[in-house]
Structures are given as structure tokens and as C-alpha cells.
Design goal:
Elements (H helix, E strand, L loop, with lengths): L1 H9 L2 H12 L9 H13 L2 E5 L3 H9 L7 E9 L7 E9 L4 E9 L5 E3 L8 H12 L2 E3 L29
């Protein structure tokens, strides 16, 4: 029975993608080289769900514009505070290719010393309010964002409530 469960688990698209990413090296370098992006695009064509770790806006543009992939829908952007681990923050961009019926999770890390990352609003305009929410609650700044200001909390609010070091009672 457990052998059947293990086989079924290995046939799940996300498990296959994780195994392929370990073997094929889908970690995109910080410079966003075209060679690494080409490997990721090749894996994205084969898998239905693929977690990719990247900081490259080049990769985002390729995922959007490649006719075979067509990751044109940004369904969500989430932030994670991994305090005290460095790099402290992680962003997850959840993409959907409607024609391919495929999902892709683009993950990127941001350090606590300089919590700045390029905005993906030029690639996916729907990232606008999602990135503003992350800025408001985590304090991560998105370079090149068209309207980066608080969206949930008042302008005078001090701190970022979803950071793990934010006092439970709130700031006084």
C-alpha cells in the first residue's frame, strides 16, 4: 500500500518538477543569464507545476512572452518572513498559463539589510496592488513600481506588522 502511495506521489507534477529541478539546475543566477533562463523555460514546457527560484526580470519577461508557455496570468504574490534566517524574506509569484493548464511558482529571496527588489508590474500589471500589500505589511520596496505607497494601513503607521520581529502587542 505504501509503495503505491509513493509511486502515485512521484507521478504528481509538482514532485516530478522538483526532481527535475534538482537534476537540471533550475536555480537562475542573480545576473539572470539567458542560459539559465533557457533551462528553466525547457523545464516549464515539460512540467505542469514548477517551483523556480530566481531574481531575474528577464526570466519573467520570457515566461510572459514565450508563445509556448504563455504564463500571462499572475494569480498571486505572497511574502514570507524567514527571520532569523538570511536572506530573510521570500517572495512567491504564482503564475498560470491558461492555454497550457500549467502553474509556475517563481520564488525569490530578499535580504533584510536591503529589502529592495525590481517590480514585476511592467511584465504583469496585476502585480501592482499585490506588491503594494507586501510593501505595506513586510516593508519590501519594489524598484520601478508605479505607485508604491501603503494600501491597507494608514500613512502614519510605524512598522510592518507581518514581520516576525514586530511586537505582538503592536508598537506603542
Amino acid at each position: 500500500m505504501q509503495a503505491q502511495k509513493a509511486r502515485a506521489r512521484n507521478h504528481h507534477p509538482e514532485v516530478r518538477a522538483k526532481q527535475a529541478s534538482k537534476d537540471d539546475g533550475t536555480q537562475v543566477d542573480r545576473a539572470g543569464g539567458r542560459c539559465a533562463a533557457a533551462r528553466v523555460l525547457d523545464l516549464a514546457r515539460r512540467a505542469r507545476e514548477l517551483p523556480v527560484r530566481s531574481r531575474s526580470e528577464l526570466l519573467a519577461e520570457l515566461l510572459m512572452s514565450d508563445a509556448d508557455l504563455a504564463f500571462t496570468f499572475l494569480s498571486d504574490v505572497t511574502g514570507v518572513d524567514r527571520f532569523p534566517i538570511e536572506p530573510r524574506f521570500e517572495l512567491n509569484y504564482h503564475l498560470v498559463s491558461i492555454p497550457r493548464r500549467a502553474r509556475l511558482r517563481l520564488r525569490t529571496s530578499v535580504s533584510a539589510q536591503q529589502p529592495i527588489i525590481d517590480s514585476l508590474c511592467p511584465v504583469w500589471p496585476g502585480a501592482n496592488w499585490l506588491e503594494r500589500e507586501i510593501f505595506d505589511l513586510f516593508g519590501i520596496q519594489f524598484e520601478g513600481h508605479p505607485d508604491l505607497r501603503r494600501i491597507l494601513l494608514p500613512e502614519g503607521f510605524e512598522g510592518f506588522p507581518l514581520r516576525r520581529d514586530f511586537p505582538v502587542e503592536g508598537k506603542r
